[in-house]
Amino acid sequence: MCEKQIRMVASPTLSPIPTVGDAVFFLLLGYYLGMANSRRDKADSYTQRAHKEGYPARSVYKLEEINTKDKIIKPGDSVLDVGAAPGSWTLYTHRMLIKGKGRIVSCDLNPLSLDPVPPTVTEITGDAFSKEIREQLTALGPYDAIISDAAPMTTGNRTVDTSRSEHLAEEVLRLAMEQLKVGGNLVIKIFQGGGEAEILKQMRMLFTKAKAFKPKASRDDSFEIFLIGMGKK
Ligand SMILES: C[S@@+](CC[C@H](N)C(=O)[O-])C[C@H]1O[C@@H](n2cnc3c(N)ncnc32)[C@H](O)[C@@H]1O
């Protein structure tokens, strides 16, 4: 409900002496507007910061939080970034995690929008799970870390979206089992309600440690979470 609509609803019921109903109404109104503003401020501050720091998407701060907590990537690592476009995770990995030492294979259906593409990056455009692209990723592997922010085009139908996200997450886990070095680390994005508990259960068997994590930089209304596996067995 926009502020104009709220005013139109509110004004005919107002009497000169405020009633308990009026007080409750204004309390709820204040809460609603406060929530909406804080959500917008949070989104704006991450977007503005990304712009200022030269990243093409605000999603960079999700990887920052993940790596600050769990140190999944270090200088010298070989990293596979799945669902890499427009390129924030790739650029952050180059600048802040491998610090120019090591290499990154960045794969997406769409090209990266990084100009220039950092020297540590090999860009592969196409479906990461098609036979042809898989062979290219294999030829460049194995990897110390695989990070996936891959997401389907959302339809607005939560059942369809979560099931597509689950499919992507399963494919990433399969790829990781083939291409991650022993001791390697894995990050997979999945939409909640899309079989994340089952995938996490599998990861707990395949890694020394595995957990689910929701970064603060995720939008409040987003139902994404990240599954993190540390130390592939
Ligand atoms: C949220 S965006 C990734 C943002 C990126 N991490 C960044 O920081 O710039 C999700 C990406 O997943 C990609 N994607 C979805 N399915 C894919 C697939 N099968 N193979 C490769 N990329 C895929 C989409 O094209 C989209 O660019």
Indicate the topology.
Elements: H1 3-10, H2 20-52, H3 60-70, E1 78-82, H4 88-97, E2 103-108, E3 121-125, H5 131-140, E4 143-148, H6 158-179, E5 180-191, H7 196-206, E6 207-213, E7 224-232
Parallel strand pairs: 1-2, 1-4, 2-3, 4-5
Antiparallel strand pairs: 5-7, 6-7
Helix pairs in contact: 3-4, 6-7
The structure holds S-adenosylmethionine (SAM).
S-adenosylmethionine (SAM) binds at residues 56-57, 59-60, 83-89, 107-110, 127-129, 149-151, 168.
CA-CA gap between termini: 51 Å
Low-confidence stretches: 1-15, 31-36
What structural class should be given to the helix and strand makeup? alpha/beta
How many E-type strands? 7
Mean pLDDT: 88
* Tertiary shape: globular
User: What fraction strand?
Assistant: 15-25%
Overall tally of structural domains: 2
CATH homology group of the largest domain: Vaccinia Virus protein VP39
Number of DSSP helical runs: 7
CATH class of the largest domain: Alpha Beta
The profile of the biggest β sheet is: 7 strands, mixed
- Read across the widest sheet, the strand sequence of neighbours is 3-2-1-4-5-7-6
CATH architecture classification of the largest domain: 3-Layer(aba) Sandwich
Elements, N to C (H/E): HHHEHEEHEHEHEE
What ligand molecules are bound, each kind once?
A: S-adenosylmethionine
Radius of gyration: 22 Å
CATH topology (level 3) name of the largest domain: Rossmann fold
* Helical content band: 40-55%
